[in-house]
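Worked Example 4.2. Consider the chain below.
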Amino acid sequence: MHARSVAAAAIDGVTGELVQAKLTPSHGHVRSWLSDLPGPVAVAYEAGPTGFGLSRSLNAAGIRCEVVAPSKLQRPSGDRVKTDAKDAIHLARLLRLDEFTPVSVPTIDQENARDLVCAREDCRGDLMRARHRLSKLLLRQGIVYSGGRAWTGAHDAWLRRQRFDASALQLTFESDYDAVLTVKARRDRLDAAIAEMAADSEFTPLVQRLGCLRGIGPLTGFALAVELGDWHRFTGNTIGSFIGLVPSEFSSGQSRVQGSITKTGNSHVRRLLIEAAWHHRANYVVGKTMRDRWELASPAARARGDEGNRRLHHRWNTFRARRKRHVVANVAIARELAGWCWSLAVLEE
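Applying the procedure from the previous section yields the following structure tokens:
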């Protein structure tokens, strides 16, 4: 599947006859070609930038369509020739054998919510880069803020007082400062929109259950809900592997070698969980913020969340006693936190 072309291949399940075609990305054209094939027909294509529109169109027409995870496709290690036609034949053969890993196709509402969360994540990166440009411009002029934490109200007032004699430098500073304010305002608007959806949407019950854990507020809970979609396809053990928080491994014979985490899967979810895991390092005290979140959840979710918070803080203390590096310990906490999130997500109330 490409933006302007589609390479198609079909294998007859009885005779083994191979049929190939070059199609346009129009869903009507694809359906027309499929209707000419002897049925019943099953279709598979790789997940990519073209989205899930074709899958929804074919499923609505009664045609089984699977969206395949590209990273899970089995390919011969010695195959060094890649073309669209060969890829299409390879997909057809894997579909015929059912040797593929499908991705979860979100609903339209879920995909729209996911796009909103991705826009907020992009905005966060843009704001970080804009702030770095401004701070490094001042650093090159020997100007360093020493009044406490940066990017607070006091820091913003200090920035507004900066003046330069050179007109070019003053214009550069104003441009970089304006970029910071513009991106920050855009981030705040997205935060407000996400908070509104988290409070009143199909994801609200799940967000409220996830909020029973420390470090997972409405924004983080909503992002986890829409990014992972169907939580029932995981277990408490497999969700860490899906996010890429398990150690890599190369074992053969009597040797077993484990390395750093795999970092596969959804990098946004992985970052959110690692950031949330740091909150479990401090002493566990149920404050007003946590009690307010618990008021929105069921008693079963509150009990599960309290158990998870105590367990994760105890794990942090165990790692500290063993003198584990904090970054290594936090990744282990994030891996277990993913399991607690899963248990709350699938909790039947």
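The longest helix spans residues 108-140. The CA atoms of residues 243 and 267 lie 7 Å apart. Compare this with Example 4.1 before moving on.
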